[in-house]
Amino acid sequence: MKPKSKILIIAGSDSSGGAGIQADIKTITALGSYAMTAITAVTIQNTTGVKSIIPIEPKRISQQIEFTSNDIKPDAIKIGMLHSSNVIRSVIHSLDFVKVKKIILDPVMIAKGGAKLIDDNAIQLLKTKLIKKVSLITPNIPEAELLTKTKIKTKEDMIFAASILIELGAENVFIKGGHLESKVVQDIFVNKKEILIIENKRITTSNTHGTGCTLSSAISTFFACGKTLKKSCELATKYVNNSIRSNLNYGRGHGPINHLSSIIINKKFR
Questions:
Q1: What is the CATH number of domain 6-260?
Q2: Which residue out of 112, 176, 214, 237 is catalytically annotated?
Q3: What would the pLDDT profile of 179-189 be if each residue is shown by its tens digit?
Q4: Neighbours of 264 (CB within 10 A)
Protein backbone atom coordinates (compact mmCIF):
# COMPACT_ATOMS: atom_id res chain seq x y z
CA MET A 1 0.00 0.00 0.00
CA LYS A 2 1.32 3.44 -0.90
CA PRO A 3 1.15 6.02 1.94
CA LYS A 4 -1.65 8.57 1.50
CA SER A 5 0.23 11.57 2.93
CA LYS A 6 3.47 12.66 4.62
CA ILE A 7 3.54 13.93 8.21
CA LEU A 8 6.46 15.57 10.02
CA ILE A 9 6.36 15.00 13.79
CA ILE A 10 8.13 17.50 16.09
CA ALA A 11 8.06 15.91 19.55
CA GLY A 12 9.89 14.14 22.35
CA SER A 13 10.84 10.47 22.48
CA ASP A 14 9.20 8.10 24.99
CA SER A 15 11.45 5.18 25.91
CA SER A 16 8.41 3.07 26.90
CA GLY A 17 6.92 3.46 23.40
CA GLY A 18 3.42 4.46 24.47
CA ALA A 19 3.55 8.21 23.89
CA GLY A 20 5.63 10.85 22.11
CA ILE A 21 7.41 10.19 18.82
CA GLN A 22 6.87 6.44 19.13
CA ALA A 23 3.08 6.75 19.48
CA ASP A 24 3.04 9.32 16.67
CA ILE A 25 4.90 7.08 14.22
CA LYS A 26 2.70 4.09 15.06
CA THR A 27 -0.49 6.12 14.64
CA ILE A 28 0.48 7.74 11.34
CA THR A 29 1.67 4.39 9.96
CA ALA A 30 -1.44 2.52 11.16
CA LEU A 31 -3.63 5.12 9.43
CA GLY A 32 -1.80 4.67 6.15
CA SER A 33 0.58 7.64 5.98
CA TYR A 34 4.33 8.29 6.09
CA ALA A 35 5.97 9.62 9.27
CA MET A 36 9.10 11.79 9.57
CA THR A 37 10.53 13.10 12.82
CA ALA A 38 12.33 15.95 14.52
CA ILE A 39 13.10 14.86 18.09
CA THR A 40 12.98 17.65 20.71
CA ALA A 41 13.97 15.61 23.78
CA VAL A 42 14.73 12.08 24.92
CA THR A 43 12.77 11.00 27.98
CA ILE A 44 13.60 8.15 30.32
CA GLN A 45 10.20 6.85 31.38
CA ASN A 46 7.94 3.86 31.73
CA THR A 47 4.27 3.37 32.52
CA THR A 48 4.81 4.45 36.15
CA GLY A 49 6.26 7.89 35.31
CA VAL A 50 9.02 10.07 33.87
CA LYS A 51 12.47 9.57 35.40
CA SER A 52 14.34 12.24 33.45
CA ILE A 53 14.30 14.42 30.32
CA ILE A 54 17.36 14.98 28.11
CA PRO A 55 16.76 18.03 25.89
CA ILE A 56 18.03 18.28 22.31
CA GLU A 57 19.73 21.57 21.35
CA PRO A 58 17.31 24.00 19.66
CA LYS A 59 19.70 24.36 16.71
CA ARG A 60 19.67 20.58 16.17
CA ILE A 61 15.86 20.52 16.31
CA SER A 62 15.68 23.21 13.61
CA GLN A 63 18.16 21.32 11.47
CA GLN A 64 16.06 18.15 11.70
CA ILE A 65 12.92 20.04 10.64
CA GLU A 66 14.48 22.00 7.80
CA PHE A 67 16.80 19.34 6.36
CA THR A 68 14.06 16.72 6.35
CA SER A 69 11.40 19.04 4.88
CA ASN A 70 13.76 20.34 2.22
CA ASP A 71 13.95 16.80 0.82
CA ILE A 72 10.47 15.38 1.58
CA LYS A 73 7.84 18.13 1.81
CA PRO A 74 5.33 17.32 4.58
CA ASP A 75 1.59 17.58 3.89
CA ALA A 76 1.08 18.35 7.58
CA ILE A 77 3.10 18.90 10.75
CA LYS A 78 2.24 17.58 14.20
CA ILE A 79 3.90 19.35 17.15
CA GLY A 80 4.17 17.73 20.58
CA MET A 81 6.58 18.29 23.45
CA LEU A 82 8.46 21.63 23.33
CA HIS A 83 10.17 21.92 26.70
CA SER A 84 11.74 25.42 26.66
CA SER A 85 11.28 28.90 25.20
CA ASN A 86 14.46 28.51 23.12
CA VAL A 87 13.06 25.33 21.55
CA ILE A 88 9.76 27.08 20.76
CA ARG A 89 11.62 29.99 19.13
CA SER A 90 13.65 27.61 16.97
CA VAL A 91 10.51 25.71 15.93
CA ILE A 92 8.69 28.95 15.02
CA HIS A 93 11.71 29.99 12.90
CA SER A 94 11.71 26.60 11.15
CA LEU A 95 7.95 26.68 10.52
CA ASP A 96 8.43 30.01 8.71
CA PHE A 97 11.17 28.37 6.63
CA VAL A 98 9.22 25.20 5.81
CA LYS A 99 5.90 26.95 5.00
CA VAL A 100 3.49 24.06 5.68
CA LYS A 101 -0.10 25.23 6.15
CA LYS A 102 -1.59 22.27 8.04
CA ILE A 103 -0.12 22.28 11.58
CA ILE A 104 -1.57 20.53 14.65
CA LEU A 105 -0.25 21.54 18.09
CA ASP A 106 -0.61 19.18 21.04
CA PRO A 107 0.62 21.37 23.94
CA VAL A 108 2.30 18.60 25.96
CA MET A 109 2.79 20.14 29.39
CA ILE A 110 1.93 17.55 32.02
CA ALA A 111 2.79 13.83 32.01
CA LYS A 112 0.12 11.24 32.84
CA GLY A 113 1.66 10.83 36.30
CA GLY A 114 1.47 14.60 36.97
CA ALA A 115 5.07 15.65 36.21
CA LYS A 116 5.38 19.09 34.57
CA LEU A 117 7.22 18.82 31.24
CA ILE A 118 7.51 22.52 30.27
CA ASP A 119 8.71 25.72 32.01
CA ASP A 120 6.65 28.88 32.58
CA ASN A 121 8.52 31.02 30.02
CA ALA A 122 7.85 28.39 27.37
CA ILE A 123 4.14 28.33 28.24
CA GLN A 124 3.97 32.11 27.78
CA LEU A 125 5.72 31.97 24.41
CA LEU A 126 3.45 29.16 23.26
CA LYS A 127 0.41 31.30 24.19
CA THR A 128 1.60 34.51 22.56
CA LYS A 129 3.47 33.30 19.45
CA LEU A 130 3.17 29.61 18.52
CA ILE A 131 -0.59 29.36 18.93
CA LYS A 132 -1.05 31.84 16.06
CA LYS A 133 1.02 29.67 13.67
CA VAL A 134 -1.08 26.50 13.89
CA SER A 135 -4.33 25.20 12.40
CA LEU A 136 -5.50 23.50 15.60
CA ILE A 137 -4.47 23.24 19.26
CA THR A 138 -5.50 20.09 21.20
CA PRO A 139 -5.09 20.59 24.98
CA ASN A 140 -6.50 18.24 27.59
CA ILE A 141 -8.25 19.84 30.57
CA PRO A 142 -5.15 20.36 32.82
CA GLU A 143 -3.32 21.89 29.83
CA ALA A 144 -6.30 24.11 28.93
CA GLU A 145 -6.48 25.27 32.56
CA LEU A 146 -2.76 26.10 32.52
CA LEU A 147 -3.02 28.00 29.23
CA THR A 148 -6.16 29.98 30.11
CA LYS A 149 -5.71 30.33 33.90
CA THR A 150 -9.27 29.10 34.45
CA LYS A 151 -10.78 26.11 36.27
CA ILE A 152 -12.65 23.59 34.15
CA LYS A 153 -15.40 21.55 35.83
CA THR A 154 -18.09 21.43 33.15
CA LYS A 155 -18.72 21.36 29.40
CA GLU A 156 -19.50 25.09 29.58
CA ASP A 157 -16.12 25.73 31.24
CA MET A 158 -14.43 23.87 28.35
CA ILE A 159 -16.19 26.07 25.79
CA PHE A 160 -15.22 29.19 27.76
CA ALA A 161 -11.56 28.09 27.91
CA ALA A 162 -11.63 27.40 24.17
CA SER A 163 -12.96 30.92 23.56
CA ILE A 164 -10.02 32.35 25.53
CA LEU A 165 -7.58 30.38 23.35
CA ILE A 166 -9.31 31.71 20.24
CA GLU A 167 -8.93 35.26 21.61
CA LEU A 168 -5.21 34.52 22.05
CA GLY A 169 -5.01 33.74 18.32
CA ALA A 170 -5.90 30.07 17.95
CA GLU A 171 -7.80 29.36 14.73
CA ASN A 172 -9.39 26.12 15.97
CA VAL A 173 -9.42 24.47 19.41
CA PHE A 174 -10.13 20.86 20.39
CA ILE A 175 -10.32 20.37 24.18
CA LYS A 176 -10.27 16.75 25.34
CA GLY A 177 -12.66 16.03 28.20
CA GLY A 178 -11.26 12.78 29.56
CA HIS A 179 -10.10 14.34 32.85
CA LEU A 180 -13.65 15.25 33.94
CA GLU A 181 -15.32 12.61 36.07
CA SER A 182 -18.37 11.51 34.10
CA LYS A 183 -19.78 8.39 32.46
CA VAL A 184 -19.77 10.15 29.09
CA VAL A 185 -16.57 11.80 27.82
CA GLN A 186 -17.20 15.07 25.97
CA ASP A 187 -14.55 16.44 23.62
CA ILE A 188 -15.20 19.90 22.21
CA PHE A 189 -14.16 21.40 18.85
CA VAL A 190 -14.49 25.19 18.72
CA ASN A 191 -13.73 27.99 16.27
CA LYS A 192 -15.29 31.41 15.64
CA LYS A 193 -18.11 29.91 13.56
CA GLU A 194 -19.07 26.65 15.26
CA ILE A 195 -19.01 24.37 18.29
CA LEU A 196 -18.99 20.58 17.93
CA ILE A 197 -19.41 18.30 20.96
CA ILE A 198 -18.23 14.70 20.48
CA GLU A 199 -19.62 12.31 23.07
CA ASN A 200 -18.36 8.81 23.85
CA LYS A 201 -19.08 6.40 26.68
CA ARG A 202 -16.13 6.31 29.08
CA ILE A 203 -13.99 3.17 28.83
CA THR A 204 -12.94 2.08 32.31
CA THR A 205 -9.19 1.37 32.17
CA SER A 206 -5.91 2.77 33.46
CA ASN A 207 -4.26 1.98 30.11
CA THR A 208 -4.47 5.39 28.45
CA HIS A 209 -0.80 6.40 28.18
CA GLY A 210 -0.19 8.39 25.00
CA THR A 211 -3.82 9.10 24.09
CA GLY A 212 -3.13 12.82 23.55
CA CYS A 213 -0.15 12.18 21.27
CA THR A 214 -2.11 9.54 19.40
CA LEU A 215 -5.15 11.76 18.94
CA SER A 216 -3.19 14.74 17.58
CA SER A 217 -1.23 12.50 15.19
CA ALA A 218 -4.46 10.89 13.99
CA ILE A 219 -6.02 14.33 13.42
CA SER A 220 -2.88 15.39 11.51
CA THR A 221 -3.11 12.28 9.31
CA PHE A 222 -6.78 12.64 8.43
CA PHE A 223 -6.32 16.40 7.86
CA ALA A 224 -3.30 15.80 5.60
CA CYS A 225 -5.34 13.31 3.57
CA GLY A 226 -7.95 15.96 2.74
CA LYS A 227 -10.58 15.66 5.49
CA THR A 228 -11.86 18.85 7.14
CA LEU A 229 -10.49 19.63 10.60
CA LYS A 230 -13.86 18.94 12.20
CA LYS A 231 -14.18 15.56 10.44
CA SER A 232 -10.53 14.78 11.26
CA CYS A 233 -11.28 15.32 14.97
CA GLU A 234 -14.31 13.00 14.78
CA LEU A 235 -12.40 10.23 12.98
CA ALA A 236 -9.35 10.57 15.25
CA THR A 237 -11.54 10.30 18.35
CA LYS A 238 -13.06 7.06 17.00
CA TYR A 239 -9.58 5.66 16.32
CA VAL A 240 -8.33 6.53 19.83
CA ASN A 241 -11.40 5.04 21.53
CA ASN A 242 -11.03 1.86 19.51
CA SER A 243 -7.36 1.70 20.50
CA ILE A 244 -8.18 2.21 24.20
CA ARG A 245 -10.87 -0.50 24.02
CA SER A 246 -8.20 -3.10 23.15
CA ASN A 247 -6.86 -2.69 26.72
CA LEU A 248 -3.34 -4.08 26.15
CA ASN A 249 -2.51 -4.01 29.87
CA TYR A 250 1.28 -3.60 29.51
CA GLY A 251 3.30 -2.31 32.46
CA ARG A 252 2.52 -1.58 36.12
CA GLY A 253 1.19 1.97 35.69
CA HIS A 254 -0.67 3.84 32.96
CA GLY A 255 -0.21 1.34 30.13
CA PRO A 256 -0.23 2.11 26.39
CA ILE A 257 -3.13 1.83 23.97
CA ASN A 258 -3.22 -0.40 20.89
CA HIS A 259 -2.12 1.66 17.88
CA LEU A 260 -2.63 -1.36 15.62
CA SER A 261 -6.39 -1.33 16.23
CA SER A 262 -6.99 0.01 12.71
CA ILE A 263 -4.97 -2.68 10.94
CA ILE A 264 -5.99 -6.08 9.61
CA ILE A 265 -2.89 -7.98 8.53
CA ASN A 266 -3.85 -10.13 5.57
CA LYS A 267 -0.40 -10.95 4.20
CA LYS A 268 1.81 -13.76 5.40
CA PHE A 269 5.54 -13.17 5.57
CA ARG A 270 7.66 -16.32 5.61
A1: 3.40.1190.20
A2: 176
A3: 888 889 999 99
A4: 5
